[in-house]
Design goal:
Keywords: Hydrolase. This protein is an alpha/beta fold. The protein has two domains: about 210 residues, Uracil-DNA Glycosylase, subunit E (3-Layer(aba) Sandwich); about 270 residues, L-arginine/glycine Amidinotransferase, Chain A. It contains 19 helices and 23 strands. Helix 1 packs across helix 8.
């Protein structure tokens, strides 16, 4: 028996920004004749398949492979650290003996990153990557018709989808040719001399669409959605709810490092009509007694390579609605900037943002006093506002006075006062105006509790955005803490 020790595991460590993991078993014993000195470098099988599936990505050298993986937040590793085999020519996983498994590094990498998908290059046969992984972590799994299985959040702190790939190895092609999935699609490749290979390319293209598709890159270039990295760790179920929607549209958010809470809308910059990012001071009075929850915008921006113009005005991002040269805020901003005179605050805001500003009274019962839980700008000349007849008179009168000056049309959004036994002091259940518009979709809060107005609200938002896909989401776990989908997101 000869012992094989893995040569590459330590050379490509996980990163906290990783969202996917490719996991195999172990390379052949001899590596000195590898075409590429890296994972799967002997026959370059998986890299050849991915290169054919995604011609706009680079997989032709170790340097280009590492760069492509890092750019797309993909980690690659193997489940076996070392093993024994009868001869150095033995490559079949089933013939490997005395396995030492890579469980500690894999667990650390998954827990300390954002991984929600694991791609296994071999399945549940003896010593297959998926089998060894599930065995070492005591995961009960059952493959569905898509060759996928769910990994419950109790194992790594978030729900993960395991995907078993068809083996990239050419030795597996005979077995794949007898697979019912290939047989079902065989007519598609009837005129091909490399039918199984083309089948594998097609399945890899579909499996890795979110990771390597050029469509994803185009979306990132036009606008980018950001979430705090803390959302995944503190609210994994909420993240999975959001992720399922984003995956439908091949939207890959970026995750903000070194934040102290999840409400990134408030401490991130505000974009002007000229495309400039203006970063306001973030020292909200409602966090005065909880400084550990107060993120430092300078540190967050620097750590995440975001450049901005800095202003000394104290303003949360959730307390401004801005479109073109129009900005609407609540009067909370004046209290937050005392002893600075009201006129000076207005002058500063209008100068740095290049806007004409309008103000409504903030609701005294609302801890934050933010505008995005009360009204939103839909487009030039149109607002949506919480149903006026259902609101306090001073709020209703304030809005009507402001809109007399602005002169825009408005549509009323239903809302309700939640009275469930689990209601917290900060609870925002019942507020529908805190939706998120991103690219072609609207992520719209629904609550699915007694007394809800979900259907009425969905009807209103559908009429306001007839050209967009409305995606209802229930993230009540976060809503109980005082914010909704707009509060936990930022778009650049």
């Amino acid at each position: 028996m000869i012992k094989t020790t893995h040569q590459y595991i330590d050379q490509f460590p996980y990163r906290q920004s990783n969202t996917s993991l490719i996991l195999g078993t172990i390379h052949p014993h001899k590596t000195d004749d590898f075409k590429i000195n890296f994972f799967y470098g002997n026959k370059v099988t998986i890299w050849g398949i991915l290169a054919e599936a995604f011609p706009d990505q680079k997989f032709d050298s170790r340097t280009s492979i590492e760069k492509t993986l890092r750019k797309n937040n993909v980690w690659i590793s193997d489940i076996i650290l070392s093993c024994e085999r009868a001869h150095d020519s033995v490559t079949q996983d089933a013939l490997l003996e005395n396995l030492e498994l890579n469980s500690e590094m894999i667990e650390e990498g998954i827990r300390n990153s954002l991984i929600t998908e694991i791609f296994f290059t071999s399945g549940f046969n003896k010593n297959g990557a998926a089998k060894l992984f599930c065995d070492v972590f005591s995961i009960k799994s059952e493959l569905d018709s898509k060759r996928e299985f769910k990994i419950d959040a109790k194992y790594f702190g978030r729900e993960i989808v395991g995907k078993v790939l068809f083996s990239p190895s050419g030795q597996a092609n005979i077995g794949i040719s007898n697979n019912k999935e290939f047989i079902k699609q065989r007519d598609k490749y009837v005129n091909s001399t490399r039918a199984v290979q083309e089948f594998k390319v097609d399945t890899y293209r579909k499996a890795f669409h979110n990771q390597f598709s050029i469509q994803k890159s185009k979306k990132v270039k036009s606008s980018q959605l950001y979430l705090s990295k803390l959302l995944i760790k503190e609210y994994p179920k909420v993240w999975n709810t959001i992720k399922r929607v984003l995956d439908k549209y091949q939207i890959s958010p970026s995750f903000l490092e070194v934040t102290n809470d999840i409400w990134c809308r408030d401490y991130m910059p505000i974009k002007t009509s000229k495309g400039e990012l203006v970063q306001f001071r973030y020292e909200p009075s409602y966090l005065r007694n909880n400084p550990q929850l107060q993120s430092d915008p300078t540190v967050v921006n620097t750590s995440n390579n975001i450049s901005a113009i800095y202003s000394g005005i104290n303003l949360d991002g959730g307390n401004i609605e801005l479109l073109g040269d129009t900005a609407i805020l609540t009067e909370r901003i004046f209290k937050e900037n005392l002893p600075l005179p009201k006129e000076e605050v207005i002058k500063n805001i209008e100068k740095v943002l290049g806007v004409k500003s309008y103000f409504v009274r903030d609701m005294t019962e609302d801890m934050t006093g933010h505008i995005d839980g009360y009204l939103r700008i839909i487009r030039e000349g149109l607002l949506v506002v919480n149903e006026l007849g259902n609101d306090f008179k001073y709020i209703r009168d304030s809005f009507l006075k402001m809109n007399d000056q602005l002169g825009w049309d408005y549509v009323e959004m239903p809302w309700f006062d939640y009275r469930g036994k689990d209601k917290t002091p900060e609870c925002a259940i019942g507020i529908y105006t805190n939706f998120l518009v991103f690219d072609e979709i609207v992520l719209f809060p629904i609550f699915e509790v007694e007394g809800n107005k979900d259907n009425e609200a969905l009807e209103v938002i559908s009429k306001l955005y007839p050209e967009k896909k409305i995606e209802p989401i229930n993230i009540n776990e976060v809503v109980m803490q005082g914010g909704l989908i707009n509060c936990i997101s930022w778009v650049n």
